[in-house]
Specification:
Length: 344
């Protein structure tokens, strides 16, 4: 299904989705972030600071509550996510491809009911990148595209005064059908312009990983390379690279006690970070990744070797956030190129 939507009717379409809670990019304190749509939605964003992974994989969530009353069996109450339907507008193709990789981990590889209950109630309306949103984009190097529809329900393409809409899934068709007469049939000229925009977008220059197909084997051969420590010398272990990544999914689980008479609390999952020294710290005091170089190696090899070995694809989607927001300028493209070149 393909349709045309006048830009001035975008808010009318969102308003028609009465069964959905709608989110779109908005500026808060100079930062783009996905927020509930209040008033006019804006889709003129470069890319959001954080990816949309938090919708299905929130930074903190309660699995269940517990209570222990003396002389009684423990009481456990599961806390499943609500069943509200949510639609996110303005998702960039790199972030949508990130959801595909998250699905591999939490839906295909294991049966994570918390992730799946949210994911199954989500819809993503993507916006093609007519030009790279950032100077650090490299989606083409990792099998992506600025006009990719992977992981999306609808792909929108900006044609100036209107959007060209393509439904990718049955959910996408339903969202577009709800718009009714707001959407028009595309003319041949619309399709031609959309194809031209896509071709020009793919032709835009980007950062490049020199040999992405050969990266898994070359990284494996470089496990003990001294380059890891050299390239990680500036790292301060802040973890911003993984917290802003659309595919990083490390987490920790803790019991948070909220009362002692009777004993009660919650079992909580929170994001964790492989760049933190304590992430792999054993109770014995041994740490198998004691240096910043070992932790940088883990992040890079997970993206370009381990995930590829397990799922047949690079985990990285080339959004460039870990480069643009690193406070000390560590560049994953440079790291991969340097290490794999050394292995050759």
């Amino acid at each position: 299904m393909e349709k045309i939507l006048d830009k001035q009717r975008l808010d009318d379409w969102i308003a028609a989705l009465t069964d959905w809670e709608a989110f779109a990019p908005a500026v808060e304190d100079g930062v783009w972030a996905f927020r509930p749509v209040v008033g006019a939605a804006r889709l003129d964003h470069p890319n959001t600071k954080q990816p949309p992974k938090g919708f299905a994989f929130p930074q903190r969530e309660v699995f269940f509550s517990f209570e222990q009353i003396k002389g009684e069996a423990p009481r456990l109450t599961q806390k499943l996510p609500d069943s509200k339907h949510r639609v996110v507008f303005g998702v960039r193709p790199c972030d949508a491809r990130g959801t595909v990789r998250m699905d591999r981990v939490f839906a295909d590889h294991v049966d994570d009911v918390y992730y799946q209950s949210r994911r199954n109630n989500m819809a993503y309306v993507g916006l093609a990148c007519n030009k790279p949103p950032s100077a650090h984009c490299f989606c083409l190097s990792v099998g992506g595209s600025p006009v990719s529809s992977d992981g999306l329900d609808v792909l929108m393409t900006d044609l100036g005064d209107r959007y060209f809409l393509a439904a990718i899934t049955e959910t996408g068709k339903s969202l577009m059908t709800t718009a009714g007469d707001l959407l028009k049939m595309p003319a041949a000229a619309d399709r031609k312009q959309a194809a031209s925009v896509h071709a020009e977008a793919v032709a835009q220059p980007q950062r490049a990983i020199n040999n992405p197909d050969g990266a898994p084997a070359r990284l494996k051969a470089s496990f003990k390379s001294p380059l890891w420590e050299e390239l990680a010398q500036a790292c301060i272990g802040c973890g911003i690279c993984t917290f802003l990544c659309p595919t990083c999914h490390c987490f920790d689980i803790n019991d948070e006690v909220t009362g002692s008479a009777p004993l009660k609390g919650n079992r909580v999952r929170t994001w964790d970070n492989c760049q933190f020294p304590d992430f792999t710290m054993h109770t014995s005091g041994h740490n198998p990744r004691p240096t910043v170089g070992a932790r940088l190696r883990q992040r890079v090899c997970h993206k370009f070797q381990y995930f590829h070995e397990n799922f047949g694809m690079h985990q990285c989607t080339g959004c460039g956030r870990c480069i643009s927001d690193c406070p000390v300028g560590i560049d994953i493209v440079h790291v991969v190129n340097k290490v794999t070149e050394h292995a050759g």
